[in-house]
C-alpha cells in the first residue's frame, strides 16, 4: 500500500486540498498517510493526530454512544422519546407517542433537515424543530440534523451529563482515542485543523471558521483524525474479522446498527441506512460508513464488517470529496474495492421535463424552487441559483452545479400515491414537500 501516499499527495494537489489524512485497516494491519498543512500557509504540518472537523460522521459517534445506553438498559430503541423528553409532548402533538430513537437514528422521523435557530435557548430550538413534519415518522427517509440534536438531548437526560461529557467519558475514553469539539463550551479552534474554501477561477484557498450552534453538536460537532475514525469503526467489524470489543455495546445491538431499516431509502446518498450508518451495497459488497462535511472540510469513513477492512479520509477543504473520488481507483488497485457512494443516473435516458414538477418545495426553513429557464430545468435554493437538473427515466434527475459545472448527488421527484401528482422532491437525501398555494 506504499503507493497510497503518492496517490494522496497527487489527489490533494490536484484538488487544492491543503491537508489530508488517509488511514487504512486491513488484515489486522494499519497503514496511515498524512499530507500538507493544517492551515493553508501556516507551515504547520498535518500529523497523525491532527484533528479535522468531521461534520456528519459525528452522527456515527452519537449513534454508537446511544447504543451503549440501549445495551445498558437505560432506554429502548422503540419507546417514544417523550418518555424521557416530556417537555416536547406539546410540540410533537399527535406523533408524541410514535416518534422513537430508532426513527431518529435512521432519519425516518420525518423531521426538518436543520435545527431551527433558537430564540430562547437550546430547548426552544428543539421544540421548534419537531413541528410541521416533512412526512410521518416511519414513512420514509429524510436526512435530519434536527433528529440527531434530539438524540443528543436524549443522551444528556439519560446520563445526567452534557453530550460532550458523555462522548468523552462513555465512548471515547474506553476506545483510547482523543477527539476535539467544534461547538459549545468545549470547542477550541486552536486544537483543530482549519477548513478551507477554494475558488479555482481565482486560484484562492482561504481558511474558514466553523459555525455550529451548540444544540447541533451531536449532529456534526466533532473533530477527529483519520486514525480516530478507524478506531471507532473497528467496533463495527465482526469479531472474527478483526473487530474489537471494548465491552460497550452488545453484539446484537451492533448488528442492529448495521441492518438496513425498512423504508429508509436515502436516494442519492447511499443504498440504505441503518442506525447511524449508511449502507453502500455497490455490486453486492457490504460496505458501511458515513460522509461528513463541515465548514470547509470533507471526510469519509467506510468499513466492511466481513472482510475486516476500514478506510478513513479527512480533508481540510470543501474539495475533499473530489479527492475521495480520485482515491477510489487507487484503493481498488490495492485490493480494497469500495462500493460507489450513490446511484449513477447519468446513464439513464433523458426525458422531457414533467409538466407538474415546477414549483417551490419546502423543508423547514429551506426552500427549493424548481423553474424552467431557456428550456432547461433549474434549481434555486433559498433564492440563490444553484444547479441545472436533467430529468431521467423514473423521475430521477442528475444535478450539475451552476458555479463550477461539477456533477452532484442525484435526486428525484416523488408522486402522491393517490393523485399521481408530483408533491415532493428528494435531494441530498432530504425530502421537501410542495408549498401549498395560499388562498
If you had to describe this structure to a student in words, what would you say it looks like?
There is one protein chain. The protein has 439 residues and is of the alpha+beta class. The chain contains eleven helices and 20 strands. An eight-stranded antiparallel beta barrel has the order 13-14-15-16-17-18-19-20. It has a seven-stranded antiparallel β-sheet with strand order 2-1-12-11-10-9-8, sandwiched between helices. Helix 2 (58-71) runs parallel beside helix 6 (145-159). It starts with a helix and ends in a 5-residue tail after the last strand.
Features:
8-stranded antiparallel barrel; 439 residues; 11 helices; globular; 26% strand; alpha+beta
Strand order of the largest sheet: 13-14-15-16-17-18-19-20
Count every helix, treating DSSP H or I runs of 4 or more residues as helices.
11
| Outline | globular
Going by helix content, strand content and strand pairing, the class is alpha+beta
**Largest sheet report:** 8 strands, antiparallel, barrel
> Approximately what portion of the residues adopt beta-strand conformation?
25-35%
> Which stretches are low in confidence, meaning pLDDT under 50 for 5 or more residues running?
none
Gyration radius, in Å: 21 Å
Distance between the termini: 64 Å
